[in-house]
Amino acid sequence: INRTDPTGMIDGDWFDEKAEKQAQKTEKSIDKKISELNKGNASDKNDRITELQKSKSDISDMRNDKNNQYKFDKSSNNGNAPETKRTGANEITIFTDDAAKQIHENRHGGQIARGEYDIDMSGNVTKGTFGVSKEFDAYKAQYSFEGKIEYIPFIDFSNNTNVMNFATKLFSQIFENYF
Q1: pLDDT at 171 exceeding the cut of 70
Q2: What is the arrangement of strands in the sheet containing 83-88, beginning at the earlier edge strand?
Q3: What is the mean pLDDT of residues 125-153?
Q4: Among 45, 53, 84, 122, which residue's CB has the most CB atoms within a 10 Å radius?
């Protein structure tokens, strides 16, 4: 028996069945990557494993967030842009199309769940701060999974969030390649 309240929460769980299935799939991918790293000899394997454990905590934090329900959707339903954004008063949707970007965007979901920052439906920060450190943290999570960083710029520069994301990604690439 499932009881669904007006906000869509089922039996006190802030992940609906579809979100829980995606979260479990991501957790299995993380566990598989940790196992691969443990068997390998990558020079940064310990740092990557630590970061992957944090990625599992991001999922747990989203599950336990009593203020927001988290959903997962394809980037193709968001103008092909991977993004974490507020899609309802108590709803955060994470748009991605691959595992590495899922890890990246989940970090932002975890940051929101932990109260590090919050956003309104226009993408404006309403609580805490969102800046380079939050984006850099998400790229560290992505790198820990994939072992490389892939850069795809946002196209809509009229949105301040997109400008911030673009600048952060550009800074990350410069830092990675020249320092």
Answers
A1: no
A2: 69-73, 91-95, 83-88
A3: 86
A4: 84
